Amino acid sequence: MRILIILLFTSNLTFAQYWGGQEINESDLTDWLPKFEIEYAGTYHFGESESESDFQLFFSGDCIIGQVQNGYWEENTGIWKSNYITLTNISIDKKGKFTSDQHSGQFIRYKMESGEYVKGLRINNPWTSWISDSEFEIGTRTKIKFEDIYYGKYSKASSRKLNIDELNQMSSKDLKLMRNEIFARYGYTFKKGGEMDKYFRKQKWYRAQHEKVEQYLTEIELYNIELIKKSE
C-alpha cells in the first residue's frame, strides 16, 4: 500500500501545500493535540523516491528518541547506502511544538475530502536536501512498527535502557552479540573473517556498509553499550 505523503512549500508571496502531488488548502491543517504525549510515538514518512526518509520517534522513560533514516548514492562506487540523523535534546510542548538541536516543527492533522484526518509532523527546517531553508515539509505517521526498522535478536538494546540485573543473567557470548548488534543495525563493517563478521553476514537484515557508525548512536544505545561492557 502506498504510504501517504504530504509536502508543504512556502514562498514570500503565496502558500502552496501538496499532499501526494495534489495541492491542498492551508485551512485543512490543524494542530494535533492528543491527550498523552506518548501518542506522538511512531514512524513518519517524508518525501518520495530517492528523497524519501523515515523519522522514528519513540519514548523510553525520561528519554525521547528521534532518528531520521534515509539513504544516498555513494560517489565513485554508485552504491546506495543507508544514512541516519540522530536528533538530540528533543522536547515536545503542550501545544504540539517539536524542538531539537537539529530540527524543529509542529505536530499537525490534515483533513481529507472524506472528512477523515491524517496525522503528521511538519518540519520547519527539513533535512531533505532539495528543500530550501524557507520551505518546510510534512511527513505522515505510518503503521510501520519499531521492530520493522530495528532488526535483530536484541532490538531492546536500541528501544529502552537496560538494567544490570537482566544483563547479569545473560552469558558473555550473548552479551557480546547484543552489544555488537547495535553497531550491526547501522551497517557497521566488522573485521573480515572475524567472529562478528561471520555471525552477522548470516543475518538476512545485515548489510556491511560503514566503517564508522558512532555518529548514528542514540542516547539509549550509548548508555546500553557501556552497561553491557560492565556486565561482560
Write the layout of secondary structure elements.
Elements: E1 6-10, E2 15-19, E3 22-24, E4 29-31, E5 42-46, E6 53-60, E7 63-73, E8 80-87, E9 91-92, E10 97-99, E11 105-111, E12 117-123, E13 136-141, H1 156-159, H2 164-168, H3 172-184, H4 195-200, H5 219-231
Antiparallel strand pairs: 1-2, 1-13, 2-3, 4-11, 5-6, 5-13, 6-7, 7-8, 9-10, 10-11, 11-12, 12-13
What keyword list fits this structure?
single chain; 232 residues; alpha+beta; Lipocalin; Methane Monooxygenase Hydroxylase, Chain G, domain 1; 2 domains; 13-stranded antiparallel sheet; 5 helices; 18% helix; 31% strand; globular; YARHG_dom; YARHG domain-containing protein; YARHG_sf
Describe the structure.
This protein has 232 residues and is of the alpha+beta class. The protein has two domains: 6-147, Beta Barrel (Lipocalin); 150-231, Up-down Bundle (Methane Monooxygenase Hydroxylase, Chain G, domain 1). 18% of the residues lie in helices and 31% in strands. The protein is built from five helices and 13 strands. It has helices at residues 156-159, 164-168, 172-184, 195-200, 219-231; strands spanning 6-10, 15-19, 22-24, 29-31, 42-46, 53-60, 63-73, 80-87, 91-92, 97-99, 105-111, 117-123, 136-141. Strands 1, 2, 3, 4, 5, 6, 7, 8, 9, 10, 11, 12 and 13 form a 13-stranded antiparallel sheet that branches. A hairpin with a 5-residue loop joins strand 10 (97-99) and strand 11. The longest helix is centred in the last third of the chain and has 13 residues, at 172-184. The chain is globular and about 60 Å long. The N and C termini lie far apart (44 Å). Mean pLDDT is 86; it is low at 1-22.
